[in-house]
Every structure is written in structure tokens, then in C-alpha cells.
Amino acid sequence: MIKIRLKRFGKKFEASYRIVAMNSDTRRDGRPLEELGFYNPRTDELKVNVPATQKRLEQGAQPTKTVRRLLEKANVYEAVAAEVTPTA
After folding, report:
1. pTM
2. CB contact set of 3 (below 8 Å; sequence gap of 6+)
3. How far apart are CA 83 and CA 76, in angstroms?
4. Please, where are the H alpha helices in 1-88?
């Protein structure tokens, strides 16, 4: 199963995270299938590649609880809904 989750990087006590698509049995900081975004909790900076994330979600990737909250904050689910329901 493919999961969308956080991959930690940075110095001690100055962690930043990349939002990545990985197999669920891969270790936390292992090689990802695809990098989808970036999150810095110290500055609350969030960047998400929305088309790539939408593609992974459509393929059945499951986000973790934290990533789901971040994707909601970035309005990724609203973009997915806008593509699914065409405006007449």
C-alpha cells in the first residue's frame, strides 16, 4: 500500500519535513517513490505539488492523519473536488 507521509530532515531540534509518497513498509527516512511537498513547522511554511498529490490520491494512496490535515490546509481536497464535478 502506498502512503503519503512525512519524511524528516534537518538538524537536531530544527526539523523540517518533506511530504512524500512511499510504500507503507518502507522506513521513515527511506527512499520515496515521489516527493510531493515540503513542510516547515517552525515557520509554518507549507508547499505542495497539487497535481502530483491529486494523481497519487486518485491512484489510491492513503495519507497519514498529519498529512491529511496539512493537505486540507493547502486546499488540495477542494482542488480534487473541483476537477471531479464540472461546473455547468
Report:
1. 0.82
2. 21, 22, 23, 24, 61, 62, 63, 64
3. 11
4. 50-58, 65-73, 76-84
73: domain CATH number is 3.30.1320.10
Question: Which residue range is the domain that position 54 belongs to?
Answer: 2-84
Amino acid found at 39: Y
| Residue with the three cell numbers 530544527 | 14
Total structural domains within the chain: 1
Q: And the C-alpha cell for 37?
A: 511537498
Q: What is the pLDDT of residues 4-51, one digit of tens each?
A: 999 998 999 999 999 999 998 888 788 889 999 999 999 999 999 999
| Amino acid at position 37, single letter | G
CA distances to 5, 32, 38, 54, 86 from 67, rounded to whole Å, are: 6, 15, 11, 13, 27
C-alpha cell read off for 65? 492523519
Query: What tens digit of pLDDT does each residue of 39-65 get?
Result: 999 999 999 999 999 999 999 999 999
Other Cβ atoms less than 10 A from the Cβ of 4: the count is 24
